[in-house]
């Protein structure tokens, strides 16, 4: 197999040098060029023909967002991974980059002076994403035409009490598309695990809340779950629910990571299955890895329902594919129809009850 060709764009020479050395150690990767800013990067792309671009955000002359916009105009299908700092400014810019069409992002190591720390961080966070997107030769965008899904009729509609969503790569845009379609009078609460570091999740919640009819917030321990509200697990904390004297409250903790993730979808879904049982719907959206697989098994064993995003509309069909291939999905749904299917399952119970 040919190596994945990488263009590294960063204004710091030490970052360009160290990242290039670490990436070049992997036999599947090849750094074919480096650039100190966006203008140089745009000139180098036709020269080195990269499979993927690693793009810094804060650069002189032409920053990462300006460069990304230009790349998307000229090379709409060239994968771009943003390389951002773990700061508020970096988080805001990263979310903006994802909305502009960045394939994914990776945070820079906090300790740039430690070669070992950088190596471990790049190996765990950046290289897997390079291999997923760099080896993907088909367009990463959702097809403009999607065949409608024919939904089956239900013989025993269940009362829905909560929606629990798990998502990773491609999540911010997927959540925006899904949550915007949910009505302000939604009769159930929503719990979300999006794989993101601290600060990013809070800013994501604020961004989503500004676009949606329902309020979206970063989860706060002790809050009582109410209908028509969405809560996102804080970065680096697992999110769970607990029944307390007739009400359900949010709780967070920092138990070890599961599936190399904290927050973990599995952790949330296990607690949802225990507290809500058959009243839960788990929704597994686009993302790398298999976080959520065991949690969906718990949901199904408790009598709940599972919806999985289809391959065509997923940025990465990893998390949903594991659920589908395990036979745990009640329905495989396109992203643009997910909100409709959720609402249909909520309404089906009400219709069945009124018809008795």
Brief account:
This protein is an alpha/beta fold and 356 residues long. It has helices at residues 13-25, 38-48, 64-74, 88-99, 115-134, 171-180, 200-211, 265-276, 293-301, 319-325, 335-354; strands at 4-9, 29-35, 52-56, 80-84, 104-107, 162-167, 190-194, 216-218, 230-232, 238-244, 247-253, 280-284, 305-309, 331-333.
Q: Ranges with pLDDT <50 over ≥5 residues?
A: 138-156
Q: Can you count the helices?
A: 11
CATH homology group of the largest domain: Methylesterase CheB, C-terminal domain
Number of strands: 14
Mean pLDDT: 90
- What order do the strands of the largest sheet run in, or round the barrel if closed? 8-9-7-6-12-13-14
N-to-C order of helices and strands = EHEHEHEHEHEHEHEEEEHEHEHEH
At CATH's second level, what is the architecture of the largest domain? Answer: 3-Layer(aba) Sandwich
What amount of the residues lies in strands?
15-25%
Oligomer: single chain
The main sheet comes to: 7 strands, parallel
Shape: elongated
Class based on secondary structure composition and strand pairing:
alpha/beta
Instruction: Calculate Rg over CA atoms.
Output: 21 Å
What is the helical fraction, as a range of percent? 25-40%
Number of domains: 2
Q: What is the CATH top level name of the largest domain?
A: Alpha Beta
């Amino acid at each position: 197999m040919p190596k994945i060709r990488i263009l590294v764009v960063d204004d710091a020479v030490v970052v360009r040098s160290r990242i290039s050395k670490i990436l070049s150690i992997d036999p599947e990767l090849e750094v074919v060029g480096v650039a100190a800013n966006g203008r140089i990067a745009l000139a180098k792309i036709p020269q080195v023909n990269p499979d993927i671009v690693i793009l810094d955000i804060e650069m002189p002359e032409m920053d990462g967002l300006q460069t990304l916009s230009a790349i998307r105009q000229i090379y709409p299908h060239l994968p771009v991974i943003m390389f951002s700092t773990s700061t508020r400014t970096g988080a805001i810019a990263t979310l903006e980059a994802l909305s502009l069409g960045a394939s994914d992002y990776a945070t820079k190591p906090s300790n740039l002076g430690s070669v070992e720390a950088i190596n471990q961080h790049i190996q765990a966070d950046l290289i897997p994403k390079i291999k997923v997107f760099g080896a993907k030769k088909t367009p990463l965008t959702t097809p403009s035409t999607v065949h409608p899904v024919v939904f089956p009729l239900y013989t025993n509609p269940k009362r829905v009490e909560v929606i629990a969503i798990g998502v990773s790569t491609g999540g911010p845009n997927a959540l925006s598309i899904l949550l915007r379609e949910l009505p302000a009078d939604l009769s159930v609460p929503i719990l979300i695990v999006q794989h993101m570091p601290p600060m990013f999740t809070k800013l994501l919640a604020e961004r989503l809340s500004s676009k949606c009819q329902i309020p979206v917030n970063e989860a706060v321990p002790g809050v009582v779950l109410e209908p028509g509200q969405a809560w996102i697990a804080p970065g680096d904390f697992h999110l769970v629910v607990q029944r307390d004297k007739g009400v359900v409250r949010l709780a967070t903790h920092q138990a070890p990571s599961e599936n190399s993730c904290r927050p973990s979808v599995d952790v949330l879904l296990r607690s949802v299955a225990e507290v809500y049982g058959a009243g839960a719907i788990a929704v597994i959206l686009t993302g790398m890895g298999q976080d959520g697989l065991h949690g969906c098994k718990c949901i199904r064993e408790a009598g709940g329902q599972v919806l999985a995003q289809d391959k065509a509309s997923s940025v990465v069909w990893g998390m949903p594919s594991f659920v589908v291939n395990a036979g745990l999905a009640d329905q495989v749904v396109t992203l643009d129809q997910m909100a409709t299917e959720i609402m249909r399952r909520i309404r089906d119970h009400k219709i069945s009850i009124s018809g008795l």
